[in-house]
Amino acid sequence: MAALATTAFALFLxxxxxxxxxxxKGGFTIDLIHRDSPRSPFYNPAETPSQRLENAFRRSFxxxxxxxPTTSSSVAQPNQAESTIINNRGEYLMELAIGTPPVPIKAxxxxxSDLIWTQCKPCDDCYTxxxxxxxxxxxxxxxxxxxxxxxxxxLKGRCSAKGSGSGSACQYExxxxxxxxxxxDIAVDTLTLASTTGRNVSFPKTIIGCGHNNxxxxxxxxxxxVGLGGGDESLITQLGTSIDGKFSYCLIPxxxxxxxxxxxxxxxxxxxxxxxxxxxxxxKDQTRKTFFFLTLEAISVDNTKIxxxxxxxxxxxxxxxxxxxxxxxxxEQSFYSKLEEAVDKVVGGERVSDPxxxxxxxxxxxxxxxxxxxxxxxxxxGADVKLEQQNTFVRVSDDTVCFAFAPAQSLxxxxxxxxxxFLVGYDLKGKAVSFKxxxxxxx
Length: 443
Fold this sequence. Notes:
Layout (H helix, E strand, L loop, with lengths): L7 H9 L10 E8 L14 H14 L21 E2 L6 E7 L4 E8 L6 E3 L23 E2 L5 H5 L3 E2 L10 E7 L4 E14 L5 E16 L8 E4 L7 H5 L6 E5 L11 E6 L10 E4 L10 E3 L1 E6 L2 E4 L12 E3 L6 E4 H15 L3 E2 L9 E3 L11 E5 L2 E5 L1 H4 E5 L2 E4 L1 E4 L3 E3 L1 H4 L2 E6 L4 E6 L6
Parallel strand pairs: 2-8, 4-11, 5-10, 18-27, 19-26
Antiparallel strand pairs: 1-3, 1-13, 3-4, 3-9, 5-11, 6-9, 7-8, 8-9, 9-10, 12-13, 12-28, 14-29, 15-18, 16-17, 16-22, 20-21, 21-25, 22-23, 24-25, 28-29
């Protein structure tokens, strides 16, 4: 995966210095909308809760290609701003607006990607989109990054075939694992976020991708992606000192969402403090700056502690990715097998298999029955995170309950079911992720 150059960070700091709406002395909070919430454009009222869970599980497995090293597609060009990620299959959306006057969009919020992009007019070859396309010609604050500028070089953009003069826009290209892609102009414009207090928070000169050529399996109800990863072009990095390098989220458990929304916090609002806080170091991988790596040491099932090991990432530092866009927790096959054996030994129920779900450990449990659920603790370096039943088992039908962990021959991923009911804070200056058990419905 190609990421924007480290030298581009100085450029982002220049832009951050112009942010006036928020400073490190304050903070703000926005809604984080689950894609299956009635507030989501992806919401399908005809689906049952079981069908929504099955779809979420499939997206978890489909998202695995996001974290595997891949080669560029045939349409990629040398020295361009490029990455290879899964398409808009993330689990949460955020409401924002681009331009002056602001044009509202709902975009996938993704901790596993970096670029902020939306479809733009004129669209040479675009997928069908329900909402109006963003028209940069109507924004008084929109400005393309010139192809001949130092910024374009720093951003590893490319010049279009039409020329490389000062009037030619610097271009980006993002290729996806399913052969979908977006190509467009690298630009700066005002980004506005809708705070839960009713006060809009604006950030001038935010770097965005204005997509003029986008095709593949994108959903017509989606308007783009907001990258919340660790790369230089992500929203988090661009907000920089204005949020003091801090953001956090509190995810409402899947079964209790309804019309309620999870929350995404920035700056002082994102500080995780008080009793019960557990913190673990973020391990930076300079070749994969997008992802937030943690170190998983072991997982305990009641009193049985299983040391983590992996033939893929090893047992050293930075062996698991924390990701809000993956529903299940994915573990390397050999370690998962040991965990499954320990869990099954405690539960001891009647096992059932449902190939539609794709999860290996499921039990036959009617609505009137209780499942004997073990106490499961995830041991990160310096943080022993004790999970609740809502984090470890999910009811997928009236008579089936499944373990919310699954095996794969890939890097391990700490998914959002395991994170639900916790305030999860990222301190990029302090290089740590913190967990605090919380009632996320009260934020």
